[in-house]
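Tokens in:
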């Protein structure tokens, strides 16, 4: 690894996550004469793979249509529409199956290893790295990279913390997303531009809101929207001890990442607990409900299938007495309950990182990368893979699919010269 040994038939991959590993192992297999070195600045490899999906690793999604798939990416959809023509979900499934890892599909389309263990994916990638002689260096932080000479015959010099240098013919940056714009400075020095980073996939904090007493309650289907905007999502919602989470909230945070950053994470969330209804349609259906429920106690007779703790909480918020019966419900309390069921407002102040799926939007501007080769349009033999680019998806395996796709394409080492 000494710069005095100017061996440049080498690919250096910066980043030991999903995209970096997929690039390294595929490049080593496809180009047997190429030396492949993977650099990871920490002591942990594939750390996001390890914790993804509660330790199960949501490898991809079973969507088979590229136009449908790209709708799951708040940023990068046009870019991915081209990239996915080269390596898509079925290719991911086949790649792992060819290496003895079978993926299973859950009811919502998410795909996991049939072992339900992320270690299965990690072990597969590590075996591939060992099989094809990828040199994996941990605690190897890159401080800067320089092009040593102009033109396609030039090479890269990678400067590592501690004074080491490493020459390379090809360079793939798969360093993940950075939370602060300043962290991209070493890539901006190459002539690339970045989209400002912003957190994506986070939960909503609701300090001192009484709804947090319901922590642990899950609603299978709720509509959440941000007041004063067009942002809305429908899906499972989880009430936590700090506010709200679950797929609907996480998806909303992804689509609203930049808007919510501008709002400094202070906004009003409107929740419809009955997404098949709006306020007027529920009001129209209410007379029949009262007639059918008659003299039954409203606290114990919940016709909407809502979790009982949530139902009783909504009744309390509407000021309805525990002894009230359906047929006796006063108009004022009835109207308030209908409003709470279909458009309940919550003051959000702050966010919490969703530990398993944390993603940062922003990164290298996509206009500067060829989506069919992952090669830089700014510098020769420079490639990108994964979250370092301005691409991010919602939860459900979409960010990993981008990692596999971009890593595989970059590994072809085409279009770089």
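Residues out:
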């Amino acid at each position: 690894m000494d710069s005095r040994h100017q061996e440049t038939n080498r690919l250096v991959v910066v980043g030991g996550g999903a995209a970096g590993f997929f690039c390294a192992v595929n490049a080593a297999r496809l180009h047997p004469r190429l030396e492949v070195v993977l650099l990871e600045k920490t002591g942990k490899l594939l750390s996001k793979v390890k914790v993804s999906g509660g330790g199960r690793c949501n490898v991809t999604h079973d969507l088979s249509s590229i136009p449908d798939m790209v709708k799951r990416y708040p940023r990068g959809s046009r870019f991915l529409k081209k990239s996915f023509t080269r390596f898509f979900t079925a290719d991911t499934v086949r790649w792992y199956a060819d290496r003895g890892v079978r993926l299973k599909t859950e009811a919502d389309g998410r795909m996991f290893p049939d072992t339900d263990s992320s270690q299965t994916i990690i072990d597969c990638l590590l075996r591939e790295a060992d099989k094809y002689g990828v040199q994996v260096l941990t605690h190897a932080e890159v401080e800067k990279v320089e092009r040593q000479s102009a033109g396609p015959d030039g090479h890269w010099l990678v400067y590592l913390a501690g004074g080491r240098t490493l020459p390379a013919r090809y360079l793939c940056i798969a360093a993940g997303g950075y939370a602060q714009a300043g962290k991209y400075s070493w890539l901006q020095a190459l002539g690339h531009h970045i989209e400002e980073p912003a957190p994506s996939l986070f939960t909503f904090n609701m300090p001192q809101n009484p709804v947090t007493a319901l922590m642990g309650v899950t609603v299978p289907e709720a509509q959440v929207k941000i007041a004063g905007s067009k942002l809305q999502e429908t899906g499972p919602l989880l009430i936590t001890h700090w506010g709200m989470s679950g797929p609907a909230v996480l998806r909303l945070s992804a689509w609203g990442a930049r808007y919510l950053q501008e709002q400094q994470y202070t906004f009003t969330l409107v929740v419809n607990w009955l997404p098949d209804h709006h306020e007027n349609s529920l009001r129209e259906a209410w007379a029949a409900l009262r007639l059918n429920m008659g003299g039954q106690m409203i606290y114990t007779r919940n016709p909407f299938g809502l979790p009982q703790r949530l139902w009783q909480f909504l009744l309390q918020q509407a000021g309805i007495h525990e002894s009230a019966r359906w047929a006796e419900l006063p108009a004022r309390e009835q109207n308030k309950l209908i409003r709470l069921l279909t458009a309940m407002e919550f003051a959000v102040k702050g966010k919490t990182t969703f530990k398993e799926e944390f993603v940062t939007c922003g990164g290298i501007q996509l206009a500067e990368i060829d989506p069919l080769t992952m090669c830089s349009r700014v510098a020769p033999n420079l490639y990108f893979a994964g979250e370092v680019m301005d691409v991010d998806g919602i939860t459900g395996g979409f960010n990993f699919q981008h990692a596999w796709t971009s890593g595989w394409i970059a590994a072809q080492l085409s279009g770089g010269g």
